[in-house]
Amino acid sequence: MKRILLATALCAAFAGSAFAQTATDAATESQGNSPIMMDRELVGGFYTDDTMTEMRSVDEMRSAYGALTEEQRETLRTQCEAEENRGTEGTALCSQIMTF
Predict the structure, then answer these.
(1) Quick one: which of 24, 55, 67, 94 has the most CB atoms within 10 Å?
(2) pLDDT tens, position by position, 6-45
């Protein structure tokens, strides 16, 4: 009987940590991949490549920001405020945008 209880406790302990890892990964992915920050038409001009991994120079980013409509700039600034509050991947881009 003790073996069954011990085995059950071990299974529960390992299953709980595996579930917690999966839940955390899913939450991080959904926060880091907000639709606005992945919109190539809106933010693609801030990056040097199609994968949007390497940012352009500050002057080029400022130019790309100036090329956006006022509505797009407001949308981007609003999203950046939310991204900064969550501490997601978008904060590198947002830290530049918020200075323009």
Answers:
(1) 94
(2) 455 555 555 554 444 444 344 334 445 577 778 888 899 9
